Amino acid sequence: MAGHNKWSQIKRKKGALDAKRSKIFTKLIKEITVASKEGGPDPAGNPRLRLAIQSAKAVNMPKDNIERAIRKGEGNDANYMEVSYEGYATNGVAIFAEAMTDNINRTVQNLRTLYNKYNGSLGTNGSLEFIFDRKGVFVLKNKADELPDEEEFTLLMIDAGAEEVVFDEEYITVYCAMEDFGAMQKKVEELELELESAELQRIPKTTVMVEDNEAVRKILQFIEALEDDDDIQRVYHNLELNEEQLQELDA
């Protein structure tokens, strides 16, 4: 999983510089709206909304945008459906896309167009369940001067339910079982840690290594095209990158 995790770290760092802000805002506004509709407009009693607001603040979304999205959900004006789509890119790379849409037909048509363009194959729901585990993933700012040493911090996280804690220069990524997500969220809030993001993600149990760099480039283009679609909230995959490919991405 090292190459897969490293790819995520590179993507996160580049995203801070290269992301299209309007696309990010659109996806977060949907998340805030649906969270407000399902759990109420008070973030103190709505963990999903609280996390969505934290994510919005992390990318400097204006307060007015956040409040407007909350009101939209509170007023039952949100007609979004949460759906997922599973399939394969070339070379047997599994692709799991989560969508939030007000028009299923539009979303499916857009996905089919992208799968055809990049020579992928769209599968049936449940076809990739054996490849991905649902895990809680917390990304924290690595502020060494404000945190215990790595060993002590890791033990604190394990006590709260962490399965794995990964450190790099800028971030600390904590993985936990889906069932421990709430307990981990409480621990992060209790310790007043600076949270970059917190969500349930689909982590691959097995990965696929593609040696052909041109094929890798096209697969990554496909993933980025899916992520760029307004209806798609998150895209997960099981592509593993070798050191040379990682260095090229990090350049």
Number of helices: 9
What is the CATH architecture term of the largest domain? Answer: 2-Layer Sandwich
- The secondary-structure element order is HHHHEEHEEHEEHEEHEEH
Strands, count: 10
Content-based structural category: alpha+beta
CATH class of the largest domain: Alpha Beta
- Beta-strand fraction estimate: 15-25%
Shape: globular
Give a quick account of the main beta sheet: strands, pairing sense, barrel closure.
4 strands, antiparallel
Distance between the termini: 21 Å
Radius of gyration: 18 Å
Topology (SSEs and partners):
Layout: H1 2-18, H2 21-39, H3 47-58, H4 63-74, E1 81-88, E2 94-101, H5 104-117, E3 121-122, E4 132-141, H6 150-159, E5 162-167, E6 171-177, H7 181-190, E7 195-204, E8 208-209, H8 213-228, E9 232-237, E10 239-240, H9 243-250
Parallel strand pairs: 8-10
Antiparallel strand pairs: 1-2, 1-3, 2-9, 4-6, 4-7, 5-6
Helix pairs in contact: 1-9, 2-3, 2-4
Briefly summarize what is shown:
This protein is an alpha+beta fold and 251 residues long. The chain folds into three domains: 73 residues, Orthogonal Bundle (Arc Repressor Mutant, subunit A), CATH 1.10.10.200; 75 residues, Alpha-Beta Plaits; 73 residues, YebC, transcriptional regulation domain (Alpha-Beta Plaits).
